[in-house]
Amino acid sequence: MKKELLVLLISFFGILNIEAQSLYFYSLEKKNNNFDSLVLAANNETVDTVKAIKSYQIAATYFTKQDIENYQKYLKQGLENSHNSPVYRDIGLYYQSIINYAKPDAVNLLEKDFTNIESLLKKYNSNEAKKIRIIMFQNKALFKMIQNKEVESMNIITNKAIPLAKSLKDYELTGALYKSIGILFYNSKDYPKAIEYMNLAENSINKLKRQTAQSKAIKGEVVLFKADALMRENKMSQANAELEKTYAIIKDYPESNFYSLYYCTLGYYHMKQKNYPEAVKLFAKGLSNAEKYKNTVIAERIKLFEGQLNNELKDYSKSNKIFKEVYASTPYQKNKQEVLKELSKNYIALKDTTKANLYAERYINSFDSLNTVSIHKNIAVLEAKYRKSERDKELVQKQLEISKKNKYMWILGLASLLSAGFIILGFLNFKKNKKISEQREVNLQQEIKEIQQREELALTKAILEGEERERARIAKDLHDGLGGMLAGVKINFSTWSSTHLEADRHKDFYKILNQLDNSVTELRHVARNLMPESLLSFGLETALKDLCEFYIRKDLKVDFQPINISKNTPLSIQLNIYRIAQELLANSVKHSGATNILLQCSQSDENFMITVEDNGKGFKEEDYRKSQSMGLHNLKNRVDYLKGKMEINSDDEGTTINIELNTHAVS
């Protein structure tokens, strides 16, 4: 890790590079007045524990300034003043460990240190100890993000850091943690979720009674990230409002290192608006600020935007030069992938087939799409479980309150019995209250059951929506990105071969060219299968018809019978119905050995019927029950999600599956 990154995680703030992973502390301090006051107060302090914590904070600040001599001086002072306090002595271990930020293997060393220190601090009930634990959890989550272990990062934040921060009612820490979840969703290209969590982060910071320079810096980051995500969703007017909000926060701090991120994001806004001269100026300002404060990650982010800007201006030579510089210096795999994709597109535009093909191949080999899908899906599942857990806690609290009321009622009943003059009246009153209490208990259990059902529905919805977003993203990347690049390579090969090769003498080349053409066709089939364009453009009936035609071959006939399929059904419901039919047809084609398949779909008001019949070999019911197929699991999830029923009849003459769904099951 480079020397310049000494200013890493003394606090716990993270910023986005092109894929939102960085470790950098932003400051909105005008001068050193606050720091000078802290040094003076620490030197004059007479209470050992207070002097210890102030000394630790001073040591950390000197470390960010790369003043190791003063860092060690105040660290030693803090440890000496903690000799009678085990909790402050153990807190000192955290500040002692930050020296490892200057070492090449910083992430591994710090992760090991933080694990050991956290195990020591968790035995203390001190708020200061809890805050240090939260900071270490936040740092460990960021380490996992850097290592492309997003699922582990999400697990640390939601299951360890946030519950601890909420128990302290520390809105600043909670806001920073929500921001980290937003960054994870940004990296997954789930921009609506990223915006949702940035809003939660901003709302948390706004609950502070007094805004500090530190809390303002967190809020400024959050608002800028939100603006960036809104631009990715092409919501430019909303993004502009967030940019104006950011400027209102930072305008009084002209010398702040925050301007590198601000100018970078504002420059991207003008680039999206095709105001290229203004974007160039802003990128230059941002780069100057980033280099001044040694913020290498934002400098890299700006250079990537400059490469894309020159691509849009068709200055491919300059664009390629910038991208190659970034590729040589970046430690981030995702940025390397972005560069390879952009270089391939540039060389296609330059009609340099050899280099275009080279970079396209390196781009394709640089990542594992299936693993990426799994990671992003698991993040969505963890987030949905976290939301469910939060609502369950509220439900338990409500149950405790009712139990408390019931306890008071029992006490009241007993007190009535002890009143000699009102024994009978008290007894009757007690029985009445008990009956009411029992009825309330029944009502509560019913309410809990209904809430649990709603939560399970919400969890299923989150998982299914996450799947569809990921399918849509991959389909777009395949069709518009990789598909476009391969098609460009194929066209350039065809153009070149028509003037340089003879068809009769170079049959092997033309055979390879034909294979490339088939690969492009197959890739587009895969993209359409992931997210059917006909469904989005023409509706469910047309999409199902296209799906049936896709499976038709010489030895297989697939008939489609639509009956009264409405075009007004919500798109999310249409998509779930399409996926159910797709899974049924795929299973029949793959396993039944049928020569004839019938798909019949009919709709009557909110009821939607799906019937699939084939003349295949059938299967035993116990085989279906035992099956652990992911496809069958997803099929059952979707049927349950739409409050549906499924009936299967199968024998050696074929299989019939009937499914009844409710199109109004989900609002």
Would you kindly provide a written description of the structure presented here, covering whatever features stand out?
A five-stranded mixed beta sheet has the order 1-2-3-5-4, covered by helices on one side. It has helices at 33-44, 48-64, 68-80, 86-97, 106-121, 127-146, 150-168, 171-187, 191-206, 213-232, 236-250, 259-272, 276-292, 296-312, 316-329, 333-349, 353-364, 369-418, 423-500, 507-530, 533-538, 540-551, 571-592, 621-626, 630-641, and strands at 557-563, 596-604, 607-614, 645-651, 654-662. It is globular. The longest helix has 78 residues, at 423-500. It has 25 helices and five strands.
Helices and strands, in order, run as HHHHHHHHHHHHHHHHHHHHHHEHEEHHEE
Count all strands and give the number.
5
The multimeric state of the shown protein is single chain
Strand fraction equals 5-15%
Radius of gyration, whole Å: 31 Å
- Give unreliable regions as ranges: 1-23
Helix run count: 25
Please, what is the average pLDDT? 79
DSSP helix fraction: over 70%
**Spatial shape:** globular
Distance between the termini: 50 Å
The largest sheet is: 5 strands, mixed
What is the SS-derived class? mainly alpha
Output the strand order for the largest sheet. 1-2-3-5-4
Domain Histidine kinase: 473-665
GO molecular function: kinase activity
Protein name: histidine kinase
Organism: Chryseobacterium lathyri
